[in-house]
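chain below, 396 aa
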Amino acid sequence: MRKLTAVLIILLVAMSFASAKLVIWSSENQIPALEKLAADFESDYGIQVEIQQVNFGDIKSKFLTAAPAGEGPDIIVGAHDWVGELAINGLIEPIPFLPDREQYYEVALDAFNYGGKLYGVPYTIEAIAIIYNKDLVFDVPKTLTELEQLALEASDDEVVGFIYTAGDFYHSAPFILGRGGYIFKETSAGQDVKDIGLSNQGAVAGGNLIKSWFDKGLIPGGPNYNLMDSLFKDGLAAFIVNGIWATPSYRDAGIDYAIIPFSEIAFDDGTTPRPFVGVQGFMINAKSSNKLEATEFVVNYIGSYEGQYGMFLGERRGTARADVFAFIEAGAGPELYDVLQFSKSASVGTPMPNVPEMASVWGAMGDALGLIINGQDTVENALSAAVEKIKTTIGN
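prediction:
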């Protein structure tokens, strides 16, 4: 395992005389890799690591109850968009150092940054991408204009050339953020929630692009996720936008599909769409009496090359470390195709904001997109109204 820094060696001298036990709350997926790392840690330091399985959907709520009372685990696995709420409440500890920091994808580190401090060690990243049916599409588009042309060629009375959940901001974000829109302005001190860029020139350009797909009849009216999903599984959709969670069902349906990461398709000016990136990682309980030991385990065991590769082997999801990705890609077989393609998409994405104010964005932007794709308002008016709604909700 990783060599220790001089400062940490001094600190760990004191730690070695303590009768500490680390407790980790983890979902089922991470346990095999964590068990190996826990055994290494106990062998190195004589400190037991107890891994308690908790349903991922319950970890945050249980932690919010337990941690303020000085209870609960020393370490949790969680999503990066929990960070703002947990940090504001003083429940998670900043990560003081991160060896091999340069090996991590910047988007993964940005996801766990709050107020200019790193609050977790990321291990997996994911984002959506464009998926197409190879029996309906015979060339790989390099631009969105080429995608439009191929989608129109594939369309007929039964086949839909292009369909995705355009009224959902998560799925339309790549085309808005990629043109220069932004949610909250990034600063050296974190995200400025008073500076909202969802009605700026770039956001309007993205909104007009989405609107044009409906005006041209490229995307049918009233698209929703279930319709998109079922059409693709039935071989009746050429292009869609979706994530890695969907591809197993497409394989089961016998669809011969391929994935275009957003890193490999561009707007006409050469810039790429920027999907939202979801990141998971490990955070340290700020109320723990074992913060030093927890930091050592998270930073130098989970955060190590070996630890991150082990986490990948356990979950087969996009890794947060570029060097681990490079090793996987070099020896990858067809079974890892999906993971690699969606990882490439995430590499050009932007983290979903981890501030609590993000909760006000989804509904406002969903309403705006609904007005735009249904021709009920101009792009400029709809997006401006959405920004005003967000500002009102968060008290700007």
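The chain has a mean pLDDT of 94. The first helix runs from residue 6 to 16.
thats it, cya
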